[in-house]
Design a protein that fits this description.
By secondary structure, this protein is mostly beta strands. Helix content is 2%, strand content 51%. The chain contains one helix and 19 strands. It is elongated and about 85 Å long.
Length: 255
């Protein structure tokens, strides 16, 4: 428990000596309250403020703590950022600011601001790839006061989403290769516009045995690997659904 005291500098009140100060303030960390205790019963000069018991503490304009566990993933179609709120109970956050730099020597600039309850962000400006280094960092915000930045995380991307959409693609589900296979094979597909893509594998009885794709994709060519290590030999079907488009092909697993 932290404390402070006030000793009135007046001619008719004693100094803070053996008798103690005129007013003592205590901050109780257990219940986050401020308490005061007075040793005097009459103070004619106290009208310069109002004394209140059990005063709640205020967090407005305090510098927030740095967000924790910041990470950027390129596992999906777009760079995906994730983080955690500070584990400090006394932290106060009103928003998070997201910064990005393009290239190996790019300058950071703010690309977005998200609410205090948000702990993830997808950067739809780029698709994941290999040609452009994309660096990210974030910081917490409390009103107009900001925290220090997180450490920088980076992934690689290929094209702006807008540029990629200008390319002409057609719906296609290609035959897997190799076929027959054991136990890994590759499936290529393409979609002409952004849509939710589902690519699943079934046995001949119609039972779903694998989900290869189940997410939003922009237009483009894609490939995905299917590992059938845990499945028995036999004929399987793989089906793609993207918007109104659907197609099914066979593959043969021989062990």
């Amino acid at each position: 428990m932290d404390s402070m005291y006030i000793d009135y500098q007046t001619s008719h009140l004693p100094e803070c000596r053996a008798g103690g100060p005129d007013i003592t303030f205590h901050y109780d960390a257990a219940d986050h309250k401020i308490y005061y205790f007075g040793t005097t019963t009459k103070v004619t000069e106290e009208t310069i403020w109002n004394m209140l018991e059990n005063v709640d503490y205020k967090r407005a304009w305090f510098e927030p703590y740095i967000p924790e566990n910041f990470y950027v993933s390129d596992a999906g179609s777009y760079p995906t950022l994730s983080w955690s709120h500070s584990s400090t109970d006394a932290d106060s956050v009103t928003a998070y600011e997201i910064f990005r730099a393009e290239g190996h020597f790019g300058f950071f600039s703010q690309i977005d601001e998200v609410s205090a309850t948000t702990t993830s962000y997808i950067d739809y400006d780029y698709v994941t790839g290999r040609s452009i280094k994309l660096s990210y960092k974030i910081r917490a915000k409390n009103g107009s006061v900001v925290s220090q930045f997180t450490d920088v995380q980076f992934v690689y991307g290929d094209l702006y989403k807008e540029a990629d959409l200008k390319l002409n693609y057609e719906f296609a589900l290609n035959q897997n290769y190799p076929n027959p296979f054991n136990p890994v094979t590759t499936i290529n597909y393409s979609i002409p516009n952004q849509s939710f893509v589902s690519l699943k594998v079934y046995d001949t009885l119609g039972k779903e045995v694998a989900v290869l794709v189940n997410e939003e994709k922009i237009s483009g060519n894609y490939k995905v690997e299917f590992n059938a290590e845990t499945l028995p030999s036999g004929i399987y079907l793989y089906t793609i659904t993207a918007g109104e488009y659907s197609d099914t092909k066979k593959l043969l697993l021989i062990k």
